[in-house]
Design a protein that fits this description.
By secondary structure, this protein is of the alpha/beta class. It is 41% helix and 22% strand. The N and C termini lie far apart (52 Å).
Length: 307
């Protein structure tokens, strides 16, 4: 099979997204007949039908959906390369893209990267952060789609090189007036009598809690599932349930103290051993990191000593 053409892939993605070749042509400033010809050549090239054509438009076939996923990744990589080269022309001599879990971004990673970039010797380095789940981070690094990631170290990191990053402590967030709000600490099992607010099943926190509940032999009763810690806090404050989340997100006091956050949510640290989490910086091969990436990785690894 010949190399796939990026322009054709961009037109294919537009046709799939818009569900209509004519509208894709308007968006990409190209005639619909030219797009149709490119789509036919693309189908011939991959030797599979990619689009089902109907009166109202087009939808991707099973093969089309498979190619669509790869096309998005290829186009994203090409766009990043173009941005990196443009940045280089404007004086940026080092570009680092780091994938990070929602917990690490919600806590200390942005501040650590900002402190890194404020150092005069790093003035010509640019760092881009992309939020993904731990499993997505690991898969991207294994497949060579990214060089560096930060995620929970209990994830499946086999085959990757790792360095320790910061730690955090999971706590139960409860609304004002909740019985657990009066406690200095509690166990995870004590929260299972309550309705919970949780993150999606793809997140590391969800996986950890599901495993812990299975060991206890009791289910977690989720009343709400939201996509961010900010939304979790709002749901807890509204009284929809309790939530297990990193205590550091609200800048809580030291371990063993149940305190009220600025947003009116009490955070009660969990006593379970697994509630103390270690994050890891992961990469495939440290010898292949760019000088800028190596400098950032070493700096972030040094932050572990500050916890």
């Amino acid at each position: 099979m010949k190399d796939l053409d990026l322009t054709t892939l961009r037109l294919f993605v537009a046709a799939c997204d818009l569900g209509n070749i004519a509208r894709a042509g308007e968006q990409q400033h190209i005639g619909s007949s030219a797009i149709s010809k490119r789509m036919a050549l693309l189908e011939e090239q991959v030797q599979a039908p990619l689009l089902e054509r109907h009166r109202r438009g087009v939808v991707p076939t099973a093969a089309g959906l498979m190619l669509l996923e790869h096309a998005r990744a290829m186009l994203a990589s090409a766009d990043r390369a173009a941005r990196d080269m443009a940045a280089y022309q404007h004086g940026v001599k080092g570009q680092v893209r780091i994938l990070a879990s929602v917990s690490s971004i919600a806590e200390s990673l942005p501040d650590d990267i900002a402190a890194f970039l404020q150092k005069p010797e790093h003035a010509q380095i640019r760092v881009d952060i992309e939020e993904l789940t731990s499993s997505e981070i690991i898969r991207s690094i294994r497949e060579g789609l990214a060089l560096v990631g930060v995620c929970w170290n209990a994830a499946d990191l086999e085959g990757l090189q790792t360095l320790p990053y910061r730690c955090d402590t999971l706590a139960v967030a409860v609304p004002a007036g909740h019985p657990l709000a009066l406690r200095d600490s509690c166990s995870f099992s004590e929260t299972l009598d309550c309705e919970h607010v949780g993150l999606p099943a793809s997140t590391a926190v969800y996986t950890m809690l599901a495993r812990a509940a299975a060991i206890i032999g009791r289910p977690i009763n989720y009343r709400a599932v939201v996509s961010s810690f900010d939304a979790t806090i709002r749901c807890v404050r509204a009284g929809l349930g309790v939530a297990i989340m990193p205590r550091e997100i609200l800048g809580m006091a030291g371990p063993g103290q149940g305190v009220q956050g600025a947003q009116g949510v009490h955070m009660v640290p969990l006593t379970d051993a697994w509630a103390r989490r270690q994050f890891a910086i992961c990469f495939r091969d440290g010898s292949r990191l760019s000088p800028a990436a190596r400098t950032l990785v070493d700096y972030l690894a040094g932050c572990a000593q500050r916890d």
